[in-house]
Amino acid sequence: MLVALPSSIAFGVLVFSAISPEMVGQGALVGMIGAAALGLVAPFAGGTPALITAPCAPAAAILSGLAITLVSAGVELERIPGLLALTALLSALLQVLYGLLKGGQLIKYIPYPVVSGYLSGVGLIIALGQLPKLLGLPKDTGLLHGLRSPELWQWPGIIVGIVTITVMLLAQRVTRKVPAAILGLMGGIFCYLILGLFNPSLLTIEANPLVIGPIRSTASFLQTISDRFGSMLDIQMDDLRLVIYSAMALSVLLSIDTLKTCVVLGALTRSRHNSNRELFGQGVANLASFGAGGMPGAGTMGPTLVNVTSGGRRSQSGFIEGIFVILAILFLAPLIAWVPIGSLAGILLVVAFRMFDWQAFGLLKHAETRLDFVVIAAVVIVAETVGLISASATGIGLAILLFIRDQIRGSVLRRRATLKEISSKTHRLESERAILQENGDDAAVYELQGNLFFGTTDNLFMEIEPDLKTRKWLLLDMRRVQSMDYTAAHLFTQIHDQLKEHGGGLLFSGMPSSLPSRQDLYRYMLRVGLVSEDGGGIRIFEIRDDALEWMETHILEAAGWVKGTEEDALDLKQIELLREFDDRVLDELRQCVHERSVRADELVFRHGDKGDEIFLVRRGIVRILLPLKGGKRHHLATFGRGDFFGEMAFLDRGRRSADAEARTDCELYVLSRKEFNTHVYKDAVLGVRVFARIARAVSLHIRQTDTELRALEDR
Q: Which of 228, 327, 381, 447 is most buried (CB neighbours < 10 A)?
């Protein structure tokens, strides 16, 4: 309450003094009622612990600006409070709608330069509006004219305001236990009373323009609620046109102010808040404030930080703040009437100074941040010269431009590699690996990310264009792509046509099935004619490894490699691991191995099994799969005809680290370490040669893994 109440009074005075100086007392009451209603309802409706909701600067700026506009348009003064109340009602309903539609996530994504410019604009508007009050200028006197006319200044009010500002600025250096606003207000009141000793006219409350004056309520609380809702029955379409844009701007700004405070609060208390529930709760609280005849508000930074540093950690602290404000209205209203206008102006000037983002000028030092400064400056200038509503539209437009700028700045190309650097999970024989190393530059893999649209596809084409002259196959990994438009689809068609001229083509893999944008990329590609359901056009693979294997096979076939038929079961001497052994060594090994047949989808061994065998593939394909939680498995490698697997258990006799599953019907040679050792004791040379070949094969696998890791981690 110590922070919320003085600020609420000041904001209420700011709004109603824009209508007429005679309404200053009414403005103070409206501000206090708003603080009470918001404090009582928001903690339970929003649920964010320790958050203090009260009338705030953005609400004061929007409503005072609207009041000035309505006065300038010739609207009757008696109607303006009702139109301001209508604005608050519409804003509250919009906040409720934001919460129901889960708009809390969207508001968070408004770029900070736009928010900074808007809040700085609000601060500047408040400052320019309070300087005439600090000087005590007559109502119709412009600020520039008033600054050039010292004879119009009210020196008692100026002195009180300067004392208030000085105390507020020095207060934090002296103590943090008492809020600066309270100390500033007390200093201003004390200064005013001292001045009253020298000028007795200052100590009269009636018709005294230097103080708030008597706070009078023209009706009971229940009558006020009845009148508020009854006035809504007289709303006309012209009334809605007058206030609808202000209501929209007010709802967005109050929501931003609340969520920004919630983020800071969460960091201090190590807690999380529900953005959508909080927006809904803020809307409900502002509806309650409207019904009670109070001013709208938001979760405010200053009172919330004071609450946290004072030990407040629960929602009840906000409710207690509302109770204390009610007690202040009931018992302290006569004293509040003596609050000097100059003191309130001083408080608001300090608030405005702190709202202004002075650090934004530091953005001018660096070329890459000057555009952010331009955005902030543009919103501030529009807010001051045209109005906050136009500043809202400017901010939205600039937010779109900032998004496009960031997309264009960042590359959608995450990583690039050729088949010399990465390979499929199918383990190739040495002769096949040699061919792929020699011809691996014929194919390249591009991992894409982000949004593929007109702002990013041109840069993507510039990065891919050099490969179009030298490669046959390009694989685009789409797993991290968020969205795509027709410009990107047209670009992919051009790339595919150019690659076809070299006897190759474009491939896609990892097509995401669900995106935050809810766009189905595959269906979109079908609709724009990029791919076809009959398999014609650009080929799409579900997983990248299948696409890599497909490209490897085409490169091998282009180099004259012929794939063996499934009927050809290899003899022991044809196995890659043993190909260089002479007949004597092979005869020794034949005594150690035995043959095993495995059906398709049958397990050769299971994760965790004990074993000491190495398996040599005579015919068929075996996949190595790592079991995961939930019954899922991760594909580690594929071994084909002439290859081997299970060497780790053969070497260390440990448990199997993965499953080995036959992809097709397989014929295997099985070499047990126990059987092998019995022959090694008779022929040590046999053991040396076999272990040397296994070590060389394992070394080649590790080197290939190192190459792939280097390509993946390349920065």
A: 447
